[in-house]
Amino acid sequence: MVTGSAAHRRVLLASLVGTAVEFYDFYIYATAAALVFGPLFFPASSEAAQQLASYASLGVAFIARPVGASLFGHFGDRVGRKSTLVASLLLMGGSTLLIAFLPTYQSAGWLAPVLLCLLRFGQGLGLGGEWGGAALLAVENAPPGWRGRFGMVPQLGAPVGFIAANGLFLILGALLDDRDFVAWGWRIPFLISAVLVGLGLWVRLKLTETPAFAAALAEAPPPRVPMGELLRDHLRATIAGTFSVVACFALFYLTTTFALGYGTTTLGHDRQAFLAVQLTAILFMALGILLSGIFSDRWSPRAVLIAGGVAALAAGLLMGPLFGGGTLFLVGLFLALALFVMGFVYGPLGAFLPELFPARVRYTGASLTFNVGGIIGGGAAPAAAQWLAVHGGLFFVGLYITAAAAISLVALAALGARPAA
C-alpha cells in the first residue's frame, strides 16, 4: 500500500462510506419496521401484535449476522480483506433493493412476510461480514498511536447511515400524506440504496490489502479453518469480547427503533416531530464516537468502554422519568443523553475487538464477537422492550438497558488490560 496521508484518507473514506451504506440499509428497515411494516406485512389481530411481529422480523437479521461473520470471516482471513468487503456490500445492497419490490400481506398472503424475512436474513448476512472488515481496514492501516482514532472512523458510519435513513423518511413524511406514504412512499429509501451501494463499491474496489494481512501471509499460510483456530486458541477472548458489546446494541435499538415505535403510538407524539428529535439526538452519538476515539488513544479502548458502561447504567435508570415524562423536550433530552453514552460504548469497539486477536484469525474473531453480541444485546431488544412497556412500564425498559450495561462491564473486567494483538 502506498504510504502517506493521501493513502490513509483513502482507507478511512472506504471504511466510513462502506459502513455508512451498510448501516443506512439496516436502519431504513428498522425505521420502516417501526412505522409501516406491521400492518403491511403481517395479519391483523391487534395493532400491538402486528408491531411485535414487525420487531420480530427485525431480529431475523441478528440471527443471520453471526452466520455472515463466520462466512465472510473465513474468506477474510484466508483470501483477504478487500474482496470480502466487496462481497458483503453486494449482498447487503441486493437484499435491500429487493425489499422495495415486495408484495404486501393483503395481496400475497403469507408469502409476503416470508419473503420479507428472507431478505432481512440477507441483510444480516451481509452486515455480518461488513463491520469486521471495515474495522480491520482502518486499524490495520493505522500509524502507531492512532489505532483508537482510525478504529473510530468506521463507527461513524452508524450515525451517518442513521441520519441518511431517518432524514429521508422525514422528507418523505413532509412531502407525502399518510396514505401515499403507506401505499408506496416507504419503498423509495430501499430503491435509493442501489445508488449508495454503487458509491461504496467504487471506493472499495480501489483499495489494496492491509499491511497486517500481508505480513500474516508472509509469516505462515492462512489457517485452513479460521473459526476452528479461533475457538481452539482464543475462546476466552471470544466469549468475553462477545459480551462486551451487549450494552451498545441494547442501548442503540431501544433508543431508536423501540423509541420511534412506542413514542409515535403509545405516547402519541407526532411522527415527523419525533423523527426530527431523533435526528438531532443522533448527532450526540457522533460526538461521543469522536471523543471516544481520542480518549482511546490517550488511555485505552477498554478504559473508555468501561467508562461508557458505567454511564449506561445510569442512563437506563433515567428512561422512565425522561422518555415517559410527557413532553417531546424530555424525550429529546433522554435520547441525546443515551446516544451520547452510546458513542462511548460503541466508538472504541473498532479498535478494541480487533486487538483481542492475532491477524491470522482477526477478521473472524472481530466479526463473530461483534455480531453474536448483537444478537444478545439487540436482536430481541425492541420486542422485549415492547412487552416490558405494555406489562410493566418504561421503568422496566430502562432496567433492560442497565442490565445490558452490567453484563458488558463484567465481560470487560474479565478480559483485563491486554496489549494490542
Structural features, described:
- The protein is mostly helical.
- The chain has a single domain, classed as MFS general substrate transporter like domains (Growth Hormone, Chain: A, Up-down Bundle), CATH 1.20.1250.20.
- Helices cover 81% and strands 0% of the residues.
- It has 22 helices and no strands.
- The mean pLDDT is 88.
The biggest beta sheet is recorded as: none
Overall number of domains: 1
Q: Which outline best applies?
A: globular
Find the CATH superfamily: MFS general substrate transporter like domains
Under CATH at level 1, the class stands as: Mainly Alpha
The CATH architecture comes to Up-down Bundle
- Using the coordinates shown, work out and report the CATH topology: Growth Hormone, Chain: A
Mean pLDDT: 88
Order of helices and strands: HHHHHHHHHHHHHHHHHHHHHH
Multimeric state of these chains? single chain
Strand-helix topology:
Blueprint: H1 5-35, H2 37-41, H3 47-78, H4 81-99, H5 105-108, H6 111-139, H7 147-155, H8 157-175, H9 178-183, H10 188-204, H11 211-219, H12 226-233, H13 235-244, H14 246-264, H15 271-298, H16 301-317, H17 319-323, H18 328-346, H19 349-352, H20 362-379, H21 381-391, H22 394-415
Helix pairs in contact: 1-3, 1-4, 1-6, 1-7, 1-8, 1-10, 1-14, 3-4, 3-6, 3-20, 3-21, 4-6, 4-10, 6-7, 6-20, 7-15, 8-15, 13-20, 13-22, 14-15, 14-18, 14-20, 14-21, 14-22, 15-16, 15-18, 16-18, 16-22, 21-22
Pfam families: Sugar_tr
Organism: Sphingomonas parva
Transmembrane segments: 12-40, 52-72, 84-102, 156-175, 181-203, 237-261, 273-291, 303-323, 329-353, 365-388, 394-415
